[in-house]
Amino acid sequence: MANVYLGLGTNLGDKATNLRTAARLINDEIGKVISLSSFYETAPWGFASEHKFLNAAACVETILPPMEVLHRTQEIERTLGRTQKSVGGVYHDRLIDIDLLLYDDVILYTPELVLPHPLMIEREFVMKPLVEIASETLHPVLRKTLGELFLNVCQQSIHTPEK
């Protein structure tokens, strides 16, 4: 069994229901959801939108390999009505977004999937719910706990002047 950490986000429709439905489908299609964070309301990141996000993180026990987890999360997104993926740094409003953040201590670089997620530690909306359920988990590349990395993100945001 592997522990997979997923980031969940939504900014359209009944957001809390979108996250709960995604967690149920993940449990059905990928593996047992052993922890689900609180839901956090956040501003859009990387694009302008009048719709705030609701974000969460989940830990899932699975026997599936990373690429199969990716394909199944993408199928869950389609099932829940997501029609457009973000490509090349161009982001859009979405009913659901499921990102693979960590898969045990696997380090993977492919055109389709990079693990750990390359931008996770830069995104407070990812790290805050993730740290809630996995603060002592070690980042396989940076060799620091997620809790330590989150403290660094918070300190940087405090010291970064507003534009």
From TrEMBL:
InterPro entries listed in its UniProt record: Hppk, Hppk_sf
Pathway: Cofactor biosynthesis; tetrahydrofolate biosynthesis; 2-amino-4-hydroxy-6-hydroxymethyl-7,8-dihydropteridine diphosphate from 7,8-dihydroneopterin triphosphate: step 4/4
Superkingdom, natural source: Bacteria
MF-aspect GO terms: 2-amino-4-hydroxy-6-hydroxymethyldihydropteridine diphosphokinase activity
Gene3D superfamilies registered for this protein in UniProt: 7,8-Dihydro-6-hydroxymethylpterin-pyrophosphokinase HPPK
Annotated 7,8-dihydro-6-hydroxymethylpterin-pyrophosphokinase domain residues: 5-134
PANTHER family: 2-AMINO-4-HYDROXY-6-HYDROXYMETHYLDIHYDROPTERIDINE PYROPHOSPHOKINASE
Family according to the record: Belongs to the HPPK family.
Function: Catalyzes the transfer of pyrophosphate from adenosine triphosphate (ATP) to 6-hydroxymethyl-7,8-dihydropterin, an enzymatic step in folate biosynthesis pathway.
Protein name, as recorded: 2-amino-4-hydroxy-6-hydroxymethyldihydropteridine pyrophosphokinase
